[in-house]
Design brief:
Mean pLDDT: 79
Shape: globular
Strand content: under 5%
Structural class: mainly alpha
Number of strands: 0
CATH topology: Amino acid/polyamine transporter I
Helix content: over 70%
CATH architecture: Up-down Bundle
Order of helices and strands: HHHHHHHHHHHHHHH
Oligomer: single chain
Number of domains: 1
Number of helices: 15
């Protein structure tokens, strides 16, 4: 951490790791095992490769267009400011709100269990607290946010690494043998669907202006994605090797905690549950940090009302508060499955577009364009797999997804029709 209030390499990396490990591995491990069975580590590797390639696009675009807006600035500079890019940028902000609601719901669920069972009032109080407390933290300076995020990430990573180290002693390698693998199509589908476990690394792009120097953001992107990928592969291997697939699927929402119990006993179950609480809390903190700066930048680009441009003490507090209020409402009114589907689909569409943006840049070399083009197709494939899965398992969630995609377009159309189009052409 730099003493000038700027973010150093470890703090920026912690923001990305905090966003990814937040609800990722805890939420999708059971689903991954359900699809890939013994090949679950391979499914995570497939998703991780796409994340790394997408990270490549983010790294190059962050150096070219450093700002607090990250993705918003990338799309506007490459494609120009129009209805499509404005709608995508508003979709990104909406997706942040959805993911905040997802993390808060998970935080409340784990917390209410420790409070003595499923008490609706306790659940909703904890959901609200899970957003309000990080919101208060984000009203302070960037250095404190990075400091807190670094230590929270350190604790939860320590717990997860401990799970891998101790749990590896009880792994039954036969449960990971090729004979236990699902068909290739299901393994690939599993890798696409669980790609949401890597959502969060893009938050690093929003810290470009707060980073100490221009080299930090690219290094932090590669380090965070690569480190989380290795951690996910190790965790999934230990989980599948420690507990039969049917039992993991049965405990889908708490699969990781259930997998810790055979080797570590009840203490392991509690430790992983505590790590889940810390993970969701740090994910909320990191996501709020990026979302507040995102809303400010969208308004600066003339794509949302100018009230969101106002800074208080050099911080986009109005965007932060609006984001928090919307997330609290959604988390208390929605259900976990629908929220997860909405957030995942929104981010996959955004990631595909960012990869397309880097592939389109005229100053990129051919090899760089190819990498970004492949990543774009990978994200599109992940989105298709997610939609197919949702159509089979929860068709009603597709209506909510249509709302998520349609509302940003309607907002932009109304915003322009009202004569408040202050777009800045670049």
């Amino acid at each position: 951490m730099a003493r000038d209030g700027k973010l150093g390499f470890f703090s920026v990396t912690a923001i990305g790791v905090g966003g990814m490990v937040g609800g990722g591995i805890f939420a999708v491990l059971g689903l991954a095992v359900k699809l890939a069975h013994g090949a679950t580590p391979i499914a995570f590797a497939v998703g991780g490769v796409i994340a790394l390639m997408t990270g490549f696009s983010y790294a190059r675009l962050s150096v070219r267009y450093p700002s607090r807006g990250g993705t918003v600035v990338f799309l506007d500079r490459v494609f120009g400011v129009d209805l499509i890019t404005a709608s995508l940028n508003s979709l990104l902000w909406a997706s942040y709100v959805v993911m905040l609601a997802l993390y808060a719901f998970a935080f409340g669920s784990y917390g209410s269990t420790f409070a003595g069972g499923e008490h609706t009032l306790v659940l909703h109080l904890l959901i609200t607290l899970g957003i309000v407390a990080p919101t208060a933290l984000n009203m302070l300076d960037a250095e404190l946010i990075g400091w807190v995020e670094t230590y929270i990430v350190a604790v939860k990573i320590t717990v997860l690494v401990g799970f891998v180290a101790i749990g590896a002693t009880g792994v039954d390698s036969a449960r990971l043998a090729p004979a236990t693998w699902s068909p290739l199509s299901q393994i690939v589908a599993g890798g696409m669907i669980i790609f949401v476990a890597f959502e969060g690394f893009e938050l690093i792009a929003n810290s470009a202006e707060d980073a100490r120097d221009a080299t930090i953001v690219p290094r932090a992107l590669y380090a965070s994605i690569g480190g989380v990928l290795l951690l996910y592969i190790a965790i999934s291997a230990v989980a599948v090797g420690s507990l039969p697939v049917p039992k993991i699927v049965e405990a889908e929402e708490y699969a990781l905690a259930a997998a810790a119990q055979p080797v570590l006993g009840h203490a392991g179950f509690v430790a992983i549950s505590v790590a889940a609480l810390l993970s969701t809390l740090s994910a909320i903190n990191a996501t709020l940090y990026g979302a507040a700066r995102l809303s400010y930048t969208i308004a600066r680009e003339g794509e949302l009302p100018s009230v969101l441009e106002h800074n208080v003490g050099h911080k986009p507090l109005e965007g932060l508060l609006i984001t928090s209020v919307l997330a609290v409402a959604l988390a208390n009114l929605g259900d976990l499955s629908s929220i997860s589907t909405m957030g995942s689909a929104g981010f996959l569409l955004i990631f595909a577009t960012v990869n397309a943006a880097n592939a389109r840049r005229s100053d990129e070399k051919t090899a760089a364009r190819i990498v970004s083009a492949i990543a774009c197709l990978g994200c599109a494939g992940a989105l298709t797999a997610l939609l197919v899965y949702a159509a089979d398992e929860a068709p009603s969630s597709l209506w909510l997804l249509a709302v998520l995609l349609g509302v940003p377009v309607m907002v932009e159309v109304i915003f322009r029709a009202a004569g408040r189009d202050r777009l800045k052409m670049w």
